[in-house]
Each structure stands twice: as C-alpha cells, then as structure tokens.
Design a protein that fits this description.
Length: 468
C-alpha cells in the first residue's frame, strides 16, 4: 500500500525554532506514512511545489492513502482544500486526518471538511488583517526595517547616524558613507568606486547595490515607504520628510545621476548591440554559473571574446575564471559538437518523443461515479462489496497508460537535426540567422578557466536536454 504524508509550515522560523515541522513528520511516520512531502510556504499559496506534486501523484494513481495532521495543512483557502479533496475522491485516494478523522465520501464528512476549511481560511484572513494593522502602525511611528549603510536604528526603530567605528579605516560608518558619496562624484564609474572601497576599506557593494543606495531617500533624511513598485500592487508612495539627519542633499543625488547618465551616453552607441550576437545569453561560466559578457580587443581587428561577469567583482562575488575565450571559437566548437552528435540526438529524440496517455477517460469517469455511489452506501451486503471490487478492477485495467508517439512532432524535429548536422548549412547563415538558429538547439554552453567548451543541447520543441 502506497501511503504518503504531507506536512507544511508557513515559515522557516516555525520549522527551526518551534520544531513544528519535525513534530508533524514524526506523527505522520508513526501513523504509517512511508514517504512525507514537505512544504515551507503559506497555505494561501497554490504554487506549493510538494503540494502540487502530491496532487499529481494522486491523479496518476500512484497513491493509495494520504495522511495529514490537520485539514489546514492542505491549505488556508476553502477553494484550495475543496480542489484537493475532489481530486482525492475522484482518484480513489483515502484521506486520513489525524486530529479530526473524517470521511470525505459521507455527507457528514463533507459537512465537517467544509466547516474546518472555512475556519482555516477565517484564521488566515484574521491573521492577515492583524499584520496589516501592525505594519500600518509601524509606518505611522516612522520606523525602519533595515537601515541603509551609514545608518543604525535607535530604541524606537528610527534612523540615526551609525557612529560605530569601522575597524579598518578607524572612521564611523556614517563618515565612511560620506566618503563613498564623494568617491562616487569624483571617480569615473560606479564600478571603479566598488573596487576602490573594497580594496581600501573592505566594504562590499555591487554596482547595482551602490546605485540603489545612492538613490535611497533615507540618505536625504526622509523616511519613505512603497517606493519600489511591486507587480500587481498599485499603491502610492508614502514619504515623511526630514525625519532624521541627512547624509546627502537632493542636489548631490541629481549631480551623481547626471554624471552616470553622461557616462552611459558617452559609452553607448545610438543603437545598442549588447545582446545582438550568436549565443547571446547562452554562455555560462563553469566555476560560478554566472553569465559571460562580450568584449572587443583593442587591436584594429576588434576580435570578440567572452569573459565571466564575476571576474572583476570584489569579495565573495569574485570568480577566479579570468580566461578570455574567443566568441568565434565557442561558436565553431558548438556547431562541430552539434554535427558530430546529430545521430545520438535523433536517437534520444525518438525515445523521448513518445507520451503516455490514459484512454477511455469517459468510461473511467462513469465507473468512478458508480463506485462513489456504492461506497457511499457503506453496506455490508456481499453483492455490493463484490460489485465495488469488480468496478475497481475494471477502472485499474482501463487506467493503464498507453504509449503514444506524435509522428508529426518527431519527424519535424528529426528533419531539423538532420539539416543542422550539415556544416554547409551553418556556413550559409549570417550572424542574425545564426543567433536565432543556435538558440533553437543550444540550452547553454559552459566555459572554464582552461578554455574548455562544453555545450548542452536542447532537442527541438523542448523535449529534453542532452550533453554531447
């Protein structure tokens, strides 16, 4: 008998500090669960990975029984809980709730689940309302969550200058923040500033982080909320002016912004070609997994080469891969590997292009409805018990997956690979056509510090991936 348990907590703190997750797992295993699926996520979310995996297993008839400690472990929404229960009933999966045993097939069980799921959603909505009221009060008190560099929080969680001494420079963090502002105005670029402050003071900033820090209204003495827009949330920013000592003025921010804009205008062409080259966005560093950027040699030939984006980053972001590999060499080796491995790709494609599908779904659904009615009778009559067993056998027989091959998809993909295995085909393409065609076959290309190039191919129509 295949018995799965499902455990869920909303936050990592619940799992670690209160040991709530381990308690659930122990109870589920003691109740007979051979495998326990775990989510650390809010019950209001329908995108929980293991929860959806559990529903998928039930629909594939790979589960006989599911055990949970409470009904609200399935979710904090009436709709989500009912969706799960409906799948369990239709797929003949027994649901066992340790703290409140119910039978979803019986009217009383259905009524009890409705009450418990409604209570679970009520508790969730009540908690959400309390949190909103708490955060609203937090903002009214002009409190701050995470102070920006150069600031600290007082006893009332309001911003004050950070007068703690920075060990290497001997200056306060507030003074050091002013030095960083001056360097931003004096030095050529934000990247130069990041490298300098790491070398001189061991202070780590990324270029994007430094840009956001300079724009932070807290540095101008204001306490602001909802400045950054979030997807799906349209709320006007709340700005409380002159709430604490300012580090910079708005004029300084404008001066920095004007300098950055001038640098960008000076360095950029009228039409950017940053990603307009073959294999753009597909070349990765083997060591850190980061992307690789294109650069040009200073020679009049303007040779293109690729280098890891993290090589020039300071501190923990630094990558040791200093190798500069020619772009044309990467393209040539990728095409060669694709041509050499075309037969294996076609063979792999043929094995992967088949799908399994359950046929006779209408008949299965009709038999399942009959089975639900007979089980609802809860009769001890031998004829009814025998009829239930017979229907179960028939459903299991009809539910056997049938292997189906989409010949059109397979032949179309096979033709593409056959064409791509010809070197003359690649020689006939210009850069724009080469970029589009390679993107169809290549998933990624890894380059290490020795210059070794390892492509990973994706089969046409995204069936699977394969290394040569």
């Amino acid at each position: 008998m295949r018995v799965y348990g499902y455990a869920r907590v909303s936050t990592q703190e619940q799992a670690e500090e209160f040991d709530a997750l381990n308690q659930q797992i122990a109870r589920l295993k003691a109740a007979g669960a051979t495998e326990v699926l775990i989510d650390i996520e809010s019950g209001r979310s329908d995108s929980r990975k293991q929860f959806n995996e559990l529903l998928k297993l039930a629909q594939q008839n790979q589960v006989d029984e599911i055990i949970i400690t409470r009904i609200d472990r399935l979710g904090r929404s009436v709709i989500t809980i009912h969706k799960a229960i409906d799948i369990f009933v239709r797929c003949n999966v027994n649901l066992r709730v340790l703290d409140a045993p119910v039978d979803p097939n019986s009217p009383f069980g259905w009524f009890s689940i409705n009450q418990m799921s409604g209570l679970a959603e009520f508790e969730s909505r009540l908690l959400s309302q309390r949190i909103k009221q708490g955060t609203e009060y937090f903002r009214q008190q002009l409190k701050f969550c995470i102070p920006p560099f150069g600031y600290a929080k007082d006893d009332k969680h309001r911003l004050i200058p950070n007068n703690n001494i920075h060990e290497k420079s001997g200056k306060t963090y507030f003074e050091l923040a002013k030095i960083i502002i001056d360097l931003t105005l004096e030095m050529r670029s934000l990247k130069d500033v990041c490298n300098h402050i790491y070398t001189e003071y061991e202070v780590v900033f990324t270029v994007a982080g430094l840009r956001d820090w300079v724009k932070n209204l807290a540095l101008q003495g204001h306490t602001a909320y909802f400045i950054k827009k979030k997807k799906g949330i349209n709320r006007e920013p709340i700005i409380n002016f002159n709430t604490h000592e300012a580090l910079i003025t708005s004029a300084t921010v404008d001066a920095i912004q004007n300098k950055l804009s001038a640098n960008r205008k000076y360095r950029s062409s009228a039409k950017s070609t940053r990603g307009d080259y073959p294999l753009a966005g597909l070349i990765r560093c083997t060591h850190c997994g980061g992307g690789m950027y294109r650069n040009f040699s200073r020679h009049k030939t303007r040779t293109e080469y690729m280098r890891c984006v993290n090589y020039n980053k300071p501190g923990k972001y630094h990558c040791k891969n200093s190798k500069c590999t020619r772009l044309r060499e990467i393209i040539a080796k990728t095409i060669t590997a694709l041509c050499d491995n075309a037969p294996e790709l076609i063979e792999h494609l043929e094995s992967q292009s088949a799908t399994t599908q359950v046929v006779n779904t209408e008949k299965i659904e009709a038999l399942t409805n009959e089975l639900t009615v007979l089980r609802g009778l809860r009769s001890s009559n031998p004829d009814i018990i025998q009829a239930i067993a017979k229907i179960e056998v028939t459903i299991n027989t009809l539910s056997t997956p049938v292997r189906i091959v989409d010949r059109y998809v397979f032949e179309n993909a096979k033709r593409k690979i056959a064409i791509a295995s010809q070197a003359t085909f690649w020689e006939s393409l210009d850069d724009s056509e080469l970029r589009l065609t390679l993107a169809e076959f290549v998933e990624k290309i890894e380059v290490d510090s020795s210059g070794a190039i390892t492509p990973t191919f994706k089969l046409p129509l995204a069936l699977s991936s394969m290394r040569p």
